[in-house]
Amino acid sequence: MKKFSLMAALIVIGFIVQTSLLSFFNIFGVVPNLSLVLLVIFSMMSNGITGGILGIITGAMYDAMIYDVFGVYILVYFLIGSIIGTYTGDILKENYTAYMAVSAISTVCMHFLLYLILFFLRFRVENAINIVKSILLEIILNTVLIIFVHKLIIIIFNKLDVK
């Protein structure tokens, strides 16, 4: 319970940092997705149920603050968190390459799922091909950021003696 509470608190703090401070550190107009990075790390550190619940928390914060249609980000982040948590039991979790690969794949899946859901909700997404360069840059930023965030999370968990 202590581990889940710490994960949920760090997701909330990460969301606050994402929506308030990271916009000042954009690179070519692209900001890394800290919430997705935290969700990937915590889903890989736990199981599918915990990953799904953390995905619901992350998505609910995005839906409440950012988007017009409530539930789109909840669905996307829930799917990402639960799938990563379910299938990472066989992955060597000390390997940063695995974290980087999962982060890149989850960034692509997040944007694809958002596009797909918004397309079927009849939002204007016909110019989505124009943002491919931004998505590629976000993939690079997320894969680099996940290394530093993972090291910071390991330090926090060790200081607080959370296993």
Write up this protein.
Helix content is 72%, strand content 0%. With 163 residues, the chain is an all-alpha fold. The chain has one domain (2-159): Orthogonal Bundle (Arp2/3 complex 21 kDa subunit ARPC3). Helix 3 runs antiparallel to helix 4 and helix 4 (72-87) runs antiparallel to helix 5 (96-120). The model has no long low-confidence stretch (mean pLDDT 87).
Features:
globular, 163 residues, single chain, 72% helix, Arp2/3 complex 21 kDa subunit ARPC3, mainly alpha
Helix content: over 70%
Please tell me the CATH architecture by its name: Orthogonal Bundle
- Low-confidence residue ranges: none
* Rg of Cα set: 15 Å
What's the main sheet like? none
Q: What fold name stands as the CATH topology? A: Arp2/3 complex 21 kDa subunit ARPC3
Extended strand count: 0
The 3D shape can be described as globular
Distance between the termini: 11 Å
